[in-house]
Amino acid sequence: MYIPFKKSTHMAYKHIVQQDSELRLDAYCLGFIPNCTSRSQAKKWIKAGHVLINELHKPPSYFPKKNDILFFTMPKSTIPPYMISIDIHYEDNDCAVVYKPAGLHVSGNHPKTLRRALIHNITPSTQKTRLPQPEPTHRLDRRTSGLVLIAKTSIAAHRIGMAFAERRVQKTYRALVLGKAKAGESREPIQEKEAYTMWKVIEYGKSLHTEYNTILEITPHTGRTHQIRKHLHGAGHPILGDDLYHNGLIRKDKGLFLCSTGLVFHHPIHEEQIQISIVQPPKFSKFVHKENHRYLRFHGEL
Fold first, then answer.
1. Along the 302 residues of the chain, how does pLDDT read in single tens digits?
2. Cβ partners under 8 Å of residue 245, min gap 6
3. Full-model pTM
4. Which residues contact 28 (CB under 8 A, 6 or more apart)?
5. CATH 3.40.50.720: does it fit domain 170-260+282-298?
6. CATH superfamily, region 88-166
7. Which residues are catalytic?
């Protein structure tokens, strides 16, 4: 059992060991600290002094004994925030869905990341299992914009992670590709792993440079690195602005024309289906219409 109580301005937990444990302290913490999700995380907290046994420091290799009193104090987030405003499309006490601008890393050792921006954009959970800070639950390439699902508690993080692993989260993208694409799919393996992407045509227009440009709606059924970009390039229709997978015409100055526009998932706690969708960035249609206008004017069709 654990008893939450206030210690200074941090949430803390007191736990009484009921019998001698066969688990080391770092493994034992997984069962007594509500928001501890891994042994490596527990080790860090133990070594940093956030876990005490009878008010004494013990190593991660210590085996808790009957009637030991364990104290855990939630560490403050030590990650410097990135002070920009992030659009929030859904938020409750367990999770959130936010919009990541193009050019921003989701996480990692960078001064400007979505994870750092969440610190002052997302309201902390009031649940006992709240995380030290909100955490993104999946990747989005730096140059890709769009929706990202955020966990605010350890339970939500675990269940959302399982949903992604079991392919129960549906993601939808919009992309502007070169050429006159048709509805299609690709099952080309990526790094010898299964990969499956489907797409359909939303809009297309003529172009002096590539004959046509096409806006696609894309549904990836697996989540391999650069899957959409690789599959569309393999189909002969690279995404405008892609500097890795292209046929020579990059137009990098325009940015990558790929955006995550839809998320459908079941809430990690009450299991209600949640569907979030946004419109594609305005530059997608603007580019197609502008290129089409230039084509028609050049050929005297205006």
1. 444 433 333 456 788 899 999 999 998 887 777 667 678 888 988 888 888 898 888 999 999 999 999 888 776 666 788 999 999 999 999 999 999 999 999 998 899 999 999 999 999 999 877 888 899 999 999 999 999 999 998 788 889 988 998 999 999 999 999 999 999 999 999 999 999 999 999 999 999 988 999 999 999 999 999 999 999 999 999 999 998 998 777 666 678 999 999 999 999 999 999 999 999 999 999 999 999 999 999 988 87
2. 226, 229, 230, 232, 233, 238, 239
3. 0.77
4. 21, 64
5. no
6. Pseudouridine synthase (3.30.2350.10)
7. 141
